[in-house]
Specification:
The structure is a homodimer of 208-residue chains. With 208 residues, chain A is an alpha/beta fold. Helix content of chain A is 42%, strand content 19%. A seven-stranded mixed β-sheet of chain A has the order 6-7-5-4-8-9-10, with helices on both faces. Chain A has a three-stranded antiparallel β-sheet with strand order 1-3-2. In chain A, strand 2 and strand 3 form a beta hairpin. Chain A has two domains: 70 residues, Winged helix-like DNA-binding domain superfamily/Winged helix DNA-binding domain (Arc Repressor Mutant, subunit A, Orthogonal Bundle); 113 residues, Rossmann fold. At the A-B interface, helix 1, helix 5 and helix 8 of A face helix 1, helix 5 and helix 8 of B. The structure holds a DNA duplex (24 and 24 nucleotides).
DNA sequence: TAGATTGTTAATCGATTAACAATC
DNA sequence: TAGATTGTTAATCGATTAACAATC
């Protein structure tokens, strides 16, 4: 897999959903599944499923279908879930705290190493197993703890500045919850979660 | 506008981003903008901008461009932000609380009317200006308060059941944060925010 | 071997970009 | 009027779907 040809964003966007369904099937002790069965489950065409998987090589077997456990593992590898990722959260407000507690990220190799805030009233408080640190320690911490991914969970105003800072520390991935787009070098990837955009989309769809 | 022809999901997905940029321009007291200036700002083609806007009718003027304030207002209308929406949140965990506090939804016509949880230790507690209510009051509350939008912020396990319940109460829009897809009738719209999917996408992009 | 289902090529569909006439 | 820029049509590009030969 991955011999240089780029995979389209459309395909990448569908991978986590495949991963989720395959995980459920595995948990239900289902051993094999055909593209057309999966098609029925996920409401996408069987053709698309086969095309998507074939971007990464052949995971199936003619006449049999796909082995659930194997396919699940392979998609996990493609998504990079086998490598551990070390994260810090910038912003210990409600959202930052929610993200720490959220789901079992750890089990999939996402390890939250630290959480930072600028509010003196919050610094020093416990959040889950972490203690909120002051912002001026952020850069040293990122470097010394080999942080992979920075989660930006602060308001719009400070977000751009923080992004610039952390990029200078060598961070190559940002999970951005601030209501603004970040301008970063082309070798840095940003995944935006613009909640207000999402809610507006819902509002649009509702009125039809 | 909106004379029956359907607008593609791709276009709808871009509207909130236009709205965000136009809001910023308006706040900066910029009166007019051309598609090519906006193109430079947003890093999309001027052609796409003009095509997108023209799905809803002509908002611009040849030789002049677009009036920022007018365009902002019109996109707001298209997104349905002029109508007030009444929401409840199901799940008063970290995420539910984060959403209540998050940003100034109210100013854009999203009014959080109630928050519900099944945990007896949480029921009765204050969250912002709301008091956490028990789940068995959810259905009556939705009907009596004419709730538009239900936010599902509980774990996967209960989410499908809650979705079924609220659909029976006539709710037509769900903002779903649970790690699962909801199966709802075709007249109900669901906007999914699958945070773990988003993080996996970031993980994929990071390893390239 | 026969049946099933993939992997993959070809056809279709839709979305994006380019071009330019209309017009402010 | 001349210059600028939209609205819109046409061309291109990419993604999805259909079809089927390969093969387990």
């Amino acid at each position: 897999m991955d011999e240089g040809k780029t995979i389209s964003q459309a395909v990448i966007g569908r991978l986590p959903r495949y991963y989720r369904y395959l995980g459920d099937l595995r948990d239900a002790n289902i051993e094999r599944i055909s593209s057309s069965e999966l098609s029925g489950l996920m409401k996408v065409t069987a053709s698309q499923i086969r095309q998507d998987f074939n971007n990464f090589g052949g995971f199936g077997q003619q006449g049999y279908g796909y082995n659930v456990k194997y396919l699940y593992t392979e998609i996990g590898k493609i998504l990079g879930l086998n490598d551990a990722h070390r994260l810090v959260i910038v912003g210990a407000g409600n959202l930052g705290r929610a993200l720490i507690g959220y789901s079992n990220y750890e089990s999939r190799g996402f390890i939250f190493e630290g959480i930072f805030d600028q509010d003196p009233d919050i610094i020093g408080k416990e959040v889950g197993e972490l203690t909120v640190r002051p912002m001026n320690e952020l850069e040293d911490f990122i470097i010394s703890h080999k942080i992979d991914i920075v989660v930006i969970a602060i308001p719009k105003a400070g977000a751009v500045e923080v992004a610039e800072k952390i990029v200078k520390c060598g961070v190559k991935a940002i999970w951005n919850f601030a209501h603004t787009d970040l301008n970063v070098p082309s070798d840095v990837v940003v995944e935006n979660v613009h909640l207000s955009d999402s809610l507006m989309k819902l509002s649009y769809m509702l009125q039809k």
